Amino acid sequence: MWGMKYEAFMWGLKHLRSKIGSLSICFPALPKIAFSAALVESGSWIIGPFNTDTNLVYKKVFTNIGNCYNPSTGIFTVMVKGVYYFRFSAYNDGTPNTNAAMFKNSERIVSIWDTVGEDNEDSASNGAVLELQVGDSVYISLHAQRVVYDDINHYNTFSGFLLFAM
Question: What is its main location (predicted)?
Answer without folding.
Answer: secreted
